[in-house]
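I am still getting used to backbone structure tokens and would like to learn alongside you. Label the sequence line and the structure token line clearly, so we can match residues to local backbone shapes. Would you write everything just below, so we can both look at the same thing?
***
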Amino acid sequence: MSAFYCRIRLIRGSILVILIFLISCPLFSQNLSDPQKEREDIFIARIKQFNEFADRFNLKSDFNGNPADSAFRAKMPRERMIPLLFDLKDPRIQTSDTRYSADYVRIKEEFVRDVIQKKLFLYKYSQGIIAEARSRVIFQGEPQKIRLFLIQEIVGDDMVKWVLYSAKGDMLNVFKTDTSMVRFIPPSSNETDFINLKRALEDTDHLQYYASHNFEPDYLTLFFSYIGAGLIKFEYVEEVVYHIIDIPGWYIKVKDFNRTDLNSGWLITDVMKNDLELPAFIKIP
């Protein structure tokens, strides 16, 4: 009985490979929207977790989450798998859409070719995998949005944890720019025991002008201080997006597409060339 069951699963797996390969054809994909017939295959094909996305990118698992064997790799090599990890409904790749972008298609194809030819893989626990938690908070009684960035940190030899790395939000932009006035602490201030520090520190909107020229605000510390002072109340995470700079020379964005479609779940929604390391990348607005 078990041998028969395994054979049935193998046949179904082969059919699913064919279906998933064909969804890259827009004409065919329009015929795969019957939830009664395709519900189970859609559930299997859907990339339900980010770790599953990484395993498929690295071709470590099949569509059932089992280790990819030689038979699966022969039917679904990375040349086929990687393109299917993109959002195939992106208007930038639809020639009939006014938002079609030949430049984006070229970059996408170059990325796939680079990954295949250079045998580039994702390291699941890399600090080059940045999770952005787009969240809702209450700031001084008003609902606002905040973006919290988390990276993975290895603890000891075999443990890993997520840690907060940075934060971005309107309530954290406390420093204002003003070029109409020249603000500085005069060179002779030491002779008057820095009596003008009081004036400088009362200029609360422009304190950064009195700091060193290489001063950079630490928004995560500011966020923690707001939380501690009760100025911010965290409510919930609305959406998670992954920014991946772990692949040499490239950046990809991965987000969850919740739709009744074989091409659903965690998919690549953007790709571009990148040579920035984590500290510089996180400063991008």
In short: The chain has a mean pLDDT of 88. DSSP finds ten helices and six strands in the chain. The two ends are 58 Å apart (CA to CA).
